[in-house]
Amino acid sequence: MKPTEIDLHKELKKYFGFNTFKGLQEDVVRSIITGHNTFVIMPTGGGKSLCYQLPALVLEGTAIVVSPLIALMKNQVDAIRSLSSETGIAHVLNSSLTKTEVNQVKKDITSGITKLLYVAPESLTKEEYITFLRSVKLSFVAIDEAHCISEWGHDFRPEYRNLRSIIRQLGDVPVIGLTATATPKVQEDILKNLDMPDANTFKASFNRPNLYYEVRPKTKNVESDIIRFIRQHKGKSGVIYCLSRKKVEEIAQVLQVNGISAVPYHAGLDAKTRAKHQDMFLMEDVDVVVATIAFGMGIDKPDVRFVIHHDIPKSLESYYQETGRAGRDGGEGHCVAYYSYKDIEKLEKFMSGKPVAEQEIGFALLQEVVAYAETSMSRRKFLLHYFGEDFDEVNGEGADMDDNVRNPKKKTEAQEELAVLLKVVRDTRQLYKAKEVIFTLTGKVNAIIKAHKTDTQGFFGTGNNRDDKYWMALIRQVLVEGYLSKDIESYGVLKLTHKGQAFLANPHSFMMSEDHDFNENEDEAVVTASKSTGTADEALMAMLRDLRKKVAKKLGVPPFVVFQDPSLEDMALKYPVTLEELGNVHGVGEGKAKKYGKDFVELIARYVEDNDIVRPDDLVVKSTGANSGLKLYIIQNIDRKLPLNDIAKAKGLDMDALLKEMEQIVYSGTKLNIKYWIDEILDEDQQEEIHDYYMDSESDNIKDALKEFDGEYDTEELRLMRIKFISEVAN
């Protein structure tokens, strides 16, 4: 039967049981069966695999499907085999097969039974396989996850680079590239590397209107926040992504201890455990999988209701793919990412060991993630712009499904600033990336600016009435609105667009909203109650403050010695009415609860009674005790008067991390006698001076202390003295 005579709807019904195609599927299938090179960009959950499976089943010969992951191939082969009485209809050819199994595969292909042959790119480099495949009839070659070809993709695989030359050896067969995420740059790269500039290109919309996007600041309470979120979505399936295996294990444990059914999943677990955990999730024996990105490739669970990023991913492609695992059935999908710039700095550190070209790309991709997290414009519009798609943020589908749209930031007129920005891009001859453009605007110099003599120009510093953050926010919004574009080849260089030139010729109003500043409340107080997750009871809070003042006065100590503010806020959120419950409040340990707690729990109990308050039974987040081992180690070795830097070194901590642990120990009521260490660095008069300051101070904030002493002491000295002070006076 000629390809043109095939009744596609009949075949679709016969093999897959569907009456109609979804989206672009029908056009793609027609392109493939008529022998055209084809390029398909279709988001996860859009029905990508059917695009090559159906043509393979109806065409003569065997289709080769190149795929990067063995697990993915296995899933697909099982799915195809379930459609036919012949097990040989689909096979895998990879390093895991025995000689006998390889012979069976060859036999089934030769006799025309096999319609789909899944191979890893490495297998295609084997001479014997190439020779064999040249001797049989092939219908086409499909390259799944084609973004692996591009080093601009989020999942670059060097072995994908040689695919074109290998396919040439197989003879004149049509090639189909498929990917679920690709920026314009990656698309260009794929077509170039597969040498098919003439390919029929099909691009589905990347908009997933049922997904709600939200970014939250990553505070020290991120675990409590996650637990609270999961409890609000009780009984629903979700995935939590972390960047390291260690973090996956930790979070999974914390969830289990707090009564949430969760399992870890990462490449460090043996294959059997991984398969078991994956099945438990698919069969709904557990609600949550905590995973590294190894999880989810080819996981076809339609009703994942939330995807949480404990750590922000390395690129927006990864983010889009991972959030795309939520709500594939069109139902609710809540995507929450926790963001702190510190995580970005960690990722940058990891990259510093890589080749320069790779670092450049890595940094550029990371900056896009930062821009997404910090922007206050519609997140959907921002994401879709990144994938080369326009979105109408007023009438578009899913327009109100993100935190920025629901809680808009104030907008200000930026017509003049936009003109200044566009002129600087134009007058620096469109050579600079955002960083250098901002340096030029604010009048700062670096090597690149010196080399181009930009600092001698009249426009240098014309924007110094605004800070870097302001200009960065403006650049991000102007890019999405199309006044500037980022040059692809020299990733990140800003160019003026036609729209930008038209604006300079005829300026008009431009309203901008300022970026989120996720660092503004990162005071280094030992414990910070996360503001975003629940609101403290203000009336109770006022009563607790009064009581704290009274207790402090009676004992002749500053109020913060009794309990810190975040502890009071947590009490006004959790309503602890016993000393044991008080011990679960932020920054309150057993010792502290015993010493000061009685009056506080009595007050709260009365308040709860008088106001008929239903106490939340779910806000007590138990810790796994993983950290208590470290705390015990610190306490024992300080008792032995070991140098603090030795204690830190032994546990792989820097001084800042060790001080944080020590602060948590003393603030929750345990004594640490560090006089032996402080005597080495401060004399008696200095110690007395700082001690008196804390005694008379309203707050224990280090910034206030630094201001008071105006450079006489550094942060570390003031923190050490604060630990000594709390230890002696409070505990």
TrEMBL record:
Protein's recorded name: DNA helicase RecQ
One GO CC annotation: replisome
Enzyme Commission number(s) of this protein: 5.6.2.4
Gene Ontology BP, a term: DNA replication
PANTHER family, alphabetized: ATP-DEPENDENT DNA HELICASE Q1, DNA HELICASE RECQ FAMILY MEMBER
Helicase ATP-binding domain location: 29-200
Protein's organism: Flavobacterium cyanobacteriorum
Top-rank lineage group of the source organism: Bacteria
